[in-house]
Amino acid sequence: MDIRSEILNDKGINPMKSNNPTQVKVEINRQRINRRVLINEILKKVFFASTLFALAVLSVLLYRIIAQSIGWLDWHFLTSKLSIFPEKAGIYGVIIGSVGLMVVVIPVTLILGVSTAIYLEEYASKSRFQNLIKVNISNLASVPSVIFGLLGLALFGRFLNLGSSILAGGLTLSLLVLPIVVVSSQEALKAVPNFLREASYAMGAGKWTTIRKVVLPVAIPGILTGAILSISRAIGETAPLVVLGIPALLLKVPTSLMDDFTALPIQIYYWTLDTVLTPEYANLAAATIVVLLITLFLMNSIAIVIRNKTQKTY
Amino acid sequence: MDNQITPQNQIRNQIRNHIGRKKNNSDRLMPRFFLIMASVSIITTVGIVLTLITDAFHFFKEVSIFEFFSTKLAPLGANPSFGILPLINGTVLSSLIAMMVAIPIGLTSAMYLSEFSSPKTRSFIKPILEVLAGIPTIVYGFFAYSFVTPILMKLIPTLEAKNVLSPGIVMGIMIIPMVASLSEDAMKSVPNALREGAYGLGSTKLEVTTKVVLPAAMSGIMSSFVLAISRAIGETMIVAIASGSSKNFTFDITHSMQTMTGYIVEFTSGDAGSGTTGYYSLYAVGLMLFIFTFIMNLIAQYISKRFREEY
Amino acid sequence: MNQYESKIVYDVKGLNLWYGNDQALKDINIQINKNEVTAIIGPSGCGKSTFIKTLNRMIENVPNVRTSGEILYHGLNIFDKTMRVEELRTRVGMVFQKPNPFPKSIYENVLYGPKIHGVKDKQMLEEILETSLKSAALWDEVKDRLHDNAYGLSGGQQQRLCIARALAVQPDVILMDEPTSALDPIATAKIEELIDSLKADYSISIVTHSMQQAGRISDKTAFFLMGELVEFGNTEMIFSNPRDKRTEDYITGRFG
Hints:
The structure holds three protein chains of three kinds.
Chain A: H1 3-8, H2 30-69, H3 75-79, H4 92-123, H5 128-140, H6 145-159, H7 166-190, H8 194-202, H9 207-236, H10 239-244, H11 264-273, H12 280-309
Chain B: H1 7-24, H2 26-62, H3 65-68, E1 73-74, E2 81-82, H4 85-116, H5 119-134, H6 137-155, H7 165-188, H8 192-200, H9 205-216, H10 218-234, H11 237-242, H12 260-269, H13 277-306
Antiparallel strand pairs in B: 1-2
Chain C: E1 8-19, E2 22-33, E3 37-41, H1 48-55, E4 65-73, E5 76-77, H2 85-91, E6 92-95, H3 106-116, H4 122-135, H5 139-142, H6 155-167, E7 173-177, H7 185-198, E8 203-207, H8 211-217, E9 220-225, E10 228-234, H9 235-240, H10 245-251
Helix pairs in contact in C: 3-4, 3-6, 4-6, 6-7
């Protein structure tokens, strides 16, 4: 039988190579190929469905939360103080608390994170110390956030006697997101092409001058993008603050960094815990979640805009 | 000639003086400044380990190691008892449930995104996964408690309002983006030449994916699983909200159970007076948690180093 | 006996191919015969690789590729809807520019094809393994370490392993896309020897950047230039007495 009629024949059994007796025959079975192609098609759809699962969850989650917040998220809610009565409660003090945290987190992480990245990328030789820092940062990134809470409680809360103030919370969160800022700043510094540094050195500029005048200006958009992402992580972080001992109901609005405070995720947590007794707290929690998500969404959009605007080609 | 004052000489001298001054200041001081800043990350690690160990040490002065590895946990009772096994049990069970959700869905999503999807679909799905990954865990906790649990209660009538099943599932959903993106990275780094070789032998896309790409990317995929487990073990808010604070030692996932993280959060937000055994128990549990996740990370690093494929 | 049982394996009729808006192949007409080695030569970017990848439709893995015209494989149009690309590629083996064994054992590499075709019988698999490795002149070198990872082999051995892998499903044609470009001269000589011995059982199409190689191993030679098939004929004729001025310029080294 020739190959043509064999292919045309749907059974497609192939007694190939009759002229070469040394070869073992592999049958090309048409039905088997059809089955393999069919399985391929079916599983492709299964995989696609599985990928869409994420989209489905995201939509349900957003829908549920927005639906629960409707009627509760209004100007009054944003501008009033906390109250045990759901109708009166507002998150003005909570927002102030979150803003206060950022006042601490932003400068501390930027200075620590960017300096560490500059040291690792620009100064450190391939020494054991540099390697130690690198390994350490990658391990630090995977330490559960609740453990940072324990550190903050012992170090800032009790040892430095900062209690559960904004400063203690902010410093704890800064240490938590430090690895993220370091890694993203390192990426940004790595992306600066070496010929720019060489050009600066060739004109007799020193190392720090080169970093300050040549490397950093090029790397800053990348550093900012990473910093914004890590700060948005800090805004949503709950566990370390709960461990620090943030009060469940704080009627006073904080006025200084040394004041006790509460923040958006903390308030969501306490309201959610109390929904059994006061069902309306679920609506308050949902409304606070919407505020939190909108904040995160805005921050991420800014990061994306910066990233897209400054994509350079060398 | 040298002491003639020409404009060129003036500029040259100015530059020389300038260089001399600079050497004395910034180029000597800045590296030190950066080094000190870089040490903060190491100090943080040392600080974590030191606080955990010293306070856990206080704990073990009062509680024997046998009591610690027992199943009776009643920290606030008249006759307090500090067995950690109920907490480990809760942690392991909730993480197992999470993995049963995250691994199949995460891996199949990675396979779809890396091998099957068109660039257009991919550029649509990837940002969604990033959004999911960026949602704070407290939001997932709220979602588990106020949405997933009520649904599950309709399906399983015996389910308690606080249980391990619902936060386990939601934790799995939270981890899907992590498994998907790390596994996808591993699969994408498999060179195209291998795929071509398999296509050239008449493989379907599925066969190329499962028989060539997956095995070649196995080390990266496995380490993504281990990192995901580590993430689940350390996850706090979802379980703190939705799985309650029952300290019974049970394997029934429809019941409330406490995880190690849940214990830490519950106990500190109560009144854990400094210096009490209860306060120190936080650090003993924290130390266990730290060891658990640290071992997982070591395993993940070992897998990706040891079994790294060289193409 | 019908006309297709004749010597023609591939009959390409008026083949055009575009990458997006760029035409990479222009009206190609060529026939590839049984038990012959057909060399495809031409300067880089002339479409020779594109052409050979079209013969088993591998080119379709590149986004935005369009074709027109016909490629008849034993009289059947390979672009026809009823033609399963999986079956075509089983009947038409391919060897690539760089050796690309799978990161598995030698054993698993050779038997990958038979296994996806459902061969389960252990004895049969062993037989296929041995005959394929022998046909690829690799058996003696690896018979004691069949379960070692293929990446432990030298480049030349890896390429012969890839040939063995292609032979294991007993194709009818073997397409080779510059199979020796990544190899040293000794390994190249071995592959060329192998190609010569495989000719008895297979039709071979080989893309090569080396005119010397084309001259040494092929029966027919096709010269491609800027997506066009400039000249096609017996290798001896092409190299000794080219009809086209451009062919002459190329083989005498005036460009390319």
